[in-house]
User: What shape does this take?
Amino acid sequence: MDAADYVNLIVSALLLAGIYAAMSVGMTIVYGVMKIVNLAHAGFLMLGAYFVLELYERLNIDPLLGSVLAFPVFLVAGMLVHWLLVRRVPVSDQPTLASLLLMFGLWLVLQNLGYLIWGNSDRSILTPRTLSSIHFGPITVPTVRLLVFIPAVCSLGLLELVLRKTWYGRAVRALMQNRYAGRLTGIPVEKMARLTFGVGIGFAGAAGGLLAQLYSFSPDFGRGFLLRSFVIIVLGGLESFWGAAAGALVLALVETFSILVLPAGYQPAIAFSLLVVALVLFPGGIAGIFAKKRRWA
Amino acid sequence: MKRISAFAAAGWLLAGLTTLGATSNAAAPKDIPIGVVLPLTGREAKPGQYQREGIDLAIKQINEKGGVFVRDLNQKLPLREVFYDDGSDQSKSAGLTERAMSSDNVEAVLGGYSTALGEAESVMPDRYQTPWITTGAAATSIFNRGYQWIFGTLSPVDLLGYTTAQFLGTLVDAGKLRKGLKLALALENTDHGVDYGNGIKKWIGEHNGYFTVVFSESFDLGSPDFSGLLQKVKNAHADIFLADAHLQDYITMHRQYVQAGMHHTMISYGARGPETDARKALGDATDYVFAGIWWSKSLPYPQVKKFVDDYKGFTGREPDSWYAATAYEAVRALATAIEKGGTLKKQTVRDELRKLDLEESLLPGQVLRFGKGGQVDTPFVIVQNKPGGKVDLVYPKDAANGEAVVPAQK
Amino acid sequence: MKAASVPMGRFLNYRVAAWGATLIVLGILPWGGISPNLTRLLFTSLVWVITSVAWSLLGGLTGQVSFGFAVFYGLGAYTAAMGINAGLDPLAAFAISGVVAAIASLLIGLPTFRLRGPYFAIATIGVSEAVRVVMTNLSFTGGASGYRIAEHGTFRPLEHYYTALGVAALAVGTSAWVHQSKFGLSLLAVREDEEAAADIGVNPLKTKLLVHLLAATLTGIAGGVYARYAAFIHPDGVFGFQTSVAILLMPIIGGAVTVAGPVIGAFVYGFVQEELVAAFPQFHLLLYGALLIVIILFEPGGVVGWLGKLWAWVKRTRRKSALASVG
Assistant: This one.
């Protein structure tokens, strides 16, 4: 393997990391603010994929634009789900099994809805861009991966901007640190929770649309990504977005390069062992190394 | 107090469930129940659906003629499908097969799409002395266990690998490929992949000088990214790339293959290639991909043409790849065995299946015969995708309707 | 919570009698002429009773939610399968399954119990999945082809059934004992506040490791019992994530902090799941998901919690009508 091959692999891993980060940021938000482990995230990824597919096939809307459009649609959907279901579950500053199982049940329902509406075919989005590649000298970058990477990173950047600069963002960060104190300072916790849940689902829908351009999907879609999201947000520290980005990068690099030294069949084991090792060595995730230690109690 | 009420309720619950289990015995059978256990949801959902369609079509056609004639009872009895969706889950698949055999009193069970599900189900037939015909599992490890009640309408996968290599060998003999080319194998991490690889290696071992295997590794199904694996394949600098994968992985891997600008003289994904979903996903990137499959709608037999027309009338589309045909034939085999035996006694049906010589079969070779372990060994056909969405049958010569093309190097 | 604060004496006799009756009913049902299918469903449910009770000890009483119990189930399944193929008596094979799972629990628990809350849960997923992938690649256990048990002689469903019943009874008995023992109290203490527990002399790590070991042993034996019945096991099945999820769903459905809850949950899951799949092939996911949602929204205490409310309502109504008839 020559230098160009290595660079190609690194680029590949980087692009993959962007996708992974975009896919997991929705879960991070929901977990950070509401301490809910959203297993239905996979279901919303799937719905986002089908949403963009339908827009593309029926209205000829470019999938990238479709993914952007998915965000507000799923934001509203997420708020609806919160109003219908999530707010009835007791929340605390610790993740509850109840919320976890509620989300799991919701995921099953979403899957079945997918099967009823779209059947069990594997669908894909095929545009003229899908199979082309851009060449920067010896480096080959698949066009569609780059095109998906850009909005993914932009959305993360936008999110960070919102978190740092807006009132809403400050409130979210406050709630993530301490829910009760946040209430004391006058933050309307329930409304915030609804909006934040919506944002998390919005990101899930948009990410699903982005992923739909890279992979084929069926109503079963999202299961593998769910586990990887877990790895990422834990690697990154469950409450930090830059941590999630860092976690995504580490996972993508490990997944891509581990195959070079190990038989390909063991690759997922690497990701999961990495997860366990990271957890044990860095209990707060990568971001936790830099952040102050928090007390869980 | 809470706990006592819990137990009381548990007691009632149990009593209630017990009454559920009470089965009534019918005086005389009014139909022939056939258990069908296939995945309609989960990873294997699509092929499972196709196989069900094949079964349903066969049952419909048989019932339209009044059903299966049972000499013992001197009447024709319609077939009745008892269907269970196993959700692509092995323990469910095994449990539902058990249920069909033990509780629904089915005459036989058809099912087991995909090797893992078939393997789980294969334990049950001998246990309940009920014939079982798998329409979608081909691993030899199922059929070399000495089970007495199992049958399969799929030829062994190692024969698939063997035929693939054999086909490539004919291309060498015809001068379309050079001798001594290098093969890279990427095999799915299942029995299917293992058998496929073994078949290829067997042929190569028997025919010195034709090909060498320079790379062979297994990969995990359902992976979202094959960049690393494809990089390794690239590093092997092989001429021919042979992968064995499920449909989703075929689509993902081939997409990344094309995006990475990779190229090989010939490419195959095992038994996948002509699927409509793949064509829709990859467009003309699937051109010239070839596959070894158990059946093709391009087989030049009149019964195949009739089947394709009937299937189109039944479902509104042509059969996708091979899935429906092997299922259809399984029903026909079962119905024929019942008629030949003249009774619904399962032992007799099983014995008749063993002796079966079904003519005008849809399968390549036109005869369906179950081998010693219960598995058929009909030959495979090689199909190749051609531009414009066409699929040509390119091997064996006597069934071919198109020429094998070695696409020009880029 | 309620563990040791329960008054003994008469109440204890009620409970023992109730459990005893259940055991006897389950024991004679197969002889009473039930269909083979019902026997199979009961068998499956009994195996789930074992895992369900085991998980509830760790997840319910001690508050350590593990998403990776499939690793013990799978290790038990493979150990028993290989043992039986090697000629061991099945009961001996099951015992070894338990031992192997116990050892694994220590290896897994030592590093992961340092983690709290969701981190522990996620670590357990990581371990379970890593083991699954390794087993899929390991050729001497069959790898991706799975592993078959070659048992000669006719299949005797009752033998499997009574084995499962026996182990299930053992599991429930263990759980009942734990619930009313000082050990059970220390588990509750660890669940409520680890630091405070340490302050009063309970060693959180040792306690957690111990209950983990107990739970893992039972789950491993359950895996072995299942493997012998199914005669074919595969890493994606016994080590799969969906198995871990199923194992934790049952005690939740039934009520994770009680003795009876996991048992009820196991039977509900065993029967409802399959009947749903059989009756509604198009809708079973939706119905099952909706059922979960309803349980979580309206009675997170599970079936036991709901029954308790029902009983309380019945008592209130009875008292009201008694008062009305008097006054």
Residues 11 and 271 of chain C are 30 Å apart (CA to CA).
